[in-house]
Amino acid sequence: MAIIPQMSLFSWEDLADLGDLERLRLVLDYLPDEALMRTLEKKRYKGRNEYPVRAMWNTMLAGVVFEHTSIESLRRELSRNGQLRELCGLTVIVPPAYVYTRFLKKLRAHESKVEAIFETMVEQLSELLPDFGKALAIDGKAVDSFAKGKHKDEDPDGRRDTDADYGKKEYKGKHKDGTIWNKVIKWFGYKIHLIVDAAYELPVAYSVTKASVPDINAGHDMINELEKERPWLLGQAETLAGDRGYDDTKMLERLWDDHQTKPVIDIRDMWKDGEDTRQLMDIENVTHDYKGTVYCHCPMTGKEREMANGGFEKDRATLKKRCPAKQYGITCEGQAECPIAQGIRIPLKEDRRIFTPIDRASYTWAKAYAKRTAVERVNSRLDVSFGFEQHTTRGQKKMKMKTRLALCTMLAMALGHIQEGRPEKMRSLVS
Fold first, then answer.
1. pLDDT tens digit string along 212-240?
2. Which of 192, 222, 317, 390 suits 261 as a labelling partner, its CA being 20 to 30 A distant?
3. Calculated CA dihedral for residues 275, 280, 282, 285, nearest 10 degrees
């Protein structure tokens, strides 16, 4: 935890009325950064110390909290705001730009220490919040590079962005009148991939990739990282919700088979033959669509009805489907002759993409999938409250550090509000 210098101009009580400084105070108080500070101070040892490590670090955090899009913007704020300088521990003039450039390089050289800050706060939140990590959501967001595009000269020079590349995301849907709509978004830069707690809307894992990296590839990488570094988080996760960008048999299988985490991931239509339904197993009068909705067909009239959901049998790894006539009191002329009048069991292995532990045709699935929007709100906070819509960052390493500091700040504010008796404000990033 950062050591805060002794205040002579004001007290912490006074800060409560100063809004922005109160937000910074929360971060400085609750960010577990002592190990990083000791490492950087040991590295400096007897070197010049006009700009102490802790003061430099505190001003970097201030830049994140106050949404400064550049170092020059932060320096201007420090120059005019004596209270902010004192809070950050600056006892001399504002550090010049090159000092910040060198300090950021040192931070990137010790990124594992900064990553440890993030991981520590995730563990602290899991101890403070009931059911933290029980429902997870995953998604990726596009982030433009400050560079406008690829340069013909690929040699790094500190100004052009030689890491970023081009990404494209396509959205499709159907209007109420049945017409198809299509929207394509293209950008030059990166993707930020997040796994968040869907109840509290707080990040638990992340990665930063080039724009061209598919969401599912980054998703597997984050699961791999969690398996290695924080297996307890996957062990307590009951569901993981994601859009169809994560529709992948291997992902669905590993979540349930390895971790007993129920995947709640939207599905793409992979049927290329134009069929709306197909026969289920070897049952003549039962069909299903690509989304897992199961239908029975009356042996007498051929009338199609959606079968009722009967739940998931974990010990058998099967989904139960019940006769709609019995379940809903519907008159079915062929019920006496129907071979499935007593219901059916569908093994997940019939098709692991279509049939999942939570029935895709159930209200439970729809309710769990709705939690996916939590990660969209976290992405929105990155854009609006942490300046990712307007930034001056070039290079993947710099973008990773920017993302890491923003997410650490987000978690530190949440911890501060919880520890100080304001849990209802844990998602508040404003004064």
1. 999 999 999 999 999 999 999 999 999 99
2. 192
3. -80
